[in-house]
Model the fold of this input.
Amino acid sequence: MIEVNASVLNTSGYSNHLKARLSRIQPLFGRLIHVSALRDPASGRYEDPDAGGEFDAGEVDQVVRHEHHEFFEAWLCLSLEEQAADVAGYLWRHLENRDGALHEWRRKFQYMALVPSEALDAQRELFRANLEVVLNLLYFEAP
Done:
């Protein structure tokens, strides 16, 4: 588990701001995609352009880092069937070119960017293996 200052999570205005925004994103896989996209690949820090400079950069990093890890672990705790339904729900709600997205994700392993940097190697491998199965199931079931 990552270390986060509990007082930041409990009293942070940014934490409330982010949770309100994330509550509108369904399903869980969509939330995981959203928070992972806030990580700067070069620095590994989380930055939120929607924070508008209103919140401290350290606070934003800490809160989003925590939420990313929480969503990642919650998704890993789903059964394979639930993971497949969750990913399918995301694809059908948010993407027009579902087949193209499935093909690209399967081919380029882009989904590994969804893994938090603090994830354990076993978590990374479980995520990779499960998502590979889910994407293959959805790709070959697609009409």
Observations:
- The longest helix spans residues 121-141.
- Residues 45 and 65 are 8 Å apart (CA to CA).
